[in-house]
Amino acid sequence: MTSVGLEIRQIDPRNKRDVDRFILLVHDLYGQDPAFVPPILAERRDAFNPEKNPFWKQAAVGMFLAERDGRPVGRITAHTNGAHDRKYGPGMGFFGFPEFTDDAEVSEALTQAAERWLRAHDRRRVRGPISFNMQEEAGVLVDGFEHPPYIMMAHSLPHHDGHLQDLGYEKAKDLYAWRYTVGDLNELVMMMVEEGRKIEGLTIRPLDMNNIKRDVQILIDVYNDAWAENWGSTPVGSEEAAKAAKDLKHVVEPSLIIFAEHHGEPIAVAWGMLNYNDVLRRMGRCNSLLDLLRFKWNMRFNPPRTGRLLILGIKKQHRGGALRTLSVLLYHELHMAGLKLGLTGGELGWTLEDNDKINRGIELMGGQRYKTYRVYEKDL
Fold first, then answer.
1. Tell me, what's the pLDDT at 362?
2. Is 363 inside any structural domain?
């Protein structure tokens, strides 16, 4: 039961006004937060558009908006994931995009609405926030609030963690974000790089913009193999790959996407991107066509000086042995590409808290863990 004045509405994704209120709520909640990065409204609209986001073709999604006296004060989604069901079996549901004021009534009413929706869709357990899948934004920020989020990373208000715990949500997994400063590499790293360069039949190349569809498909194929055993991962499909290729054309920096081929076979990829959140934070909003033009102008003439490494993966059968230093070599190639672009540093991750090998490798390269994101679960 909610108090007078508080209403939880399930909104229709075809209702543009409600979808915009759902998206732009963050401006009210984070307006005084110096780390706030505004969303690109057009991009977010596409994410919630069943006709434009292929995720909706294999999922059911419920979108809920909390309003007090007609003013938005919170939001959440509840969704299924067909790819997750096929890989792990049915029963797990998800919540995503949680935002709410520091008001226990609001957070409880929102999560209860999402849980009811998931039970009605035969879900027995809920995990989140996953917005909409592990390749996108995942987790609630639990430390490092003073640092602005990098591209495709979440930002949270400090009260979110406590509210979710009070509602019975327990930690399922922590995700780490690592801060990286472009500087001199240590002697051990350079020795491993030299060893990697001697691998017979190994070639390293950047993304080919003239064959971006092909290279994005290679990236997805490597990702699906390299991450197949990671906690919560689901394979990326061909439609999602095609959408990624289309979207990448507008913001990609080819020198930050690096492929490794062994005797002509693609076996590894490192995917970095310029941190366009730097530009969005300077702009303060990106809600109109004019804002989009300003964003594109800034990306070209006043580009970010930081970047994010989203993916570094090696196909399972090519790990270790003669290729044991390949990951360090890929890190080094990204490091050098960043230097040429004038980047000062960036973010690596996220990584799973228990992926010791990757986490040690990042520390070897000089990365420092500076943020933790938490994914929760709860029985329904």
1. 87
2. no
C-beta of residue 117 within 8 angstroms of C-beta of residue 11? no
Q: Are 132 and 168 in contact (CB under 8 A)?
A: no
**CB within 8 A of 176, min separation 6: which ones?**
349, 350, 351, 352, 353, 359, 369, 371, 372, 373
pLDDT at position 3: 66
DSSP string computed for 86-98: HHH-TTEEEEEEE
Q: What distance in Å separates the CA atoms of residue 11 and residue 116, rounded to the nearest whole number?
A: 15
Does residue 225 share a domain with residue 113? no
How far is 122 from 380, CA to CA, in rounded Å?
Answer: 10
pLDDT at 42: 94
Tens-place pLDDT, residues 187-200: 888 888 898 898 99
CA dihedral angle for residue 220, residue 193, residue 196, residue 320, rounded to 10 degrees = -70
Per residue in 316-344, pLDDT (tens digit) is: 999 888 888 898 899 899 999 999 999 99
pTM check: above 0.90: yes
Counted domains in the chain: 2
Give the list of residues 6+ apart from residue 1 with CB closer than 8 angstroms, or none: none
| Pick from 224, 166, 230, 229: nearest CA to 376 | 166
pLDDT value for 186 = 84
Same domain, 173 and 302: no
Helices (H) and strands (E) in the chain, counts: 12, 15
Question: Are residues 242 and 312 both part of a single domain?
Answer: yes
- Which residue in this structure is represented by tokens 């922590």? 174
Per-residue pLDDT at 78: 98
Residue of 200, 209, 220 whose CA lies nearest to 313: 220
Q: What is the C-alpha separation between 341 and 309, in angstroms, rounded?
A: 15
In a domain, 348, yes or no: no
Please give the residue range of the domain that contains residue 95.
Answer: 6-177
Q: Which residues of the chain have pLDDT under 50?
A: 1
Is 187 in the same domain as 169? no
Q: What is the DSSP letter of 298?
A: H
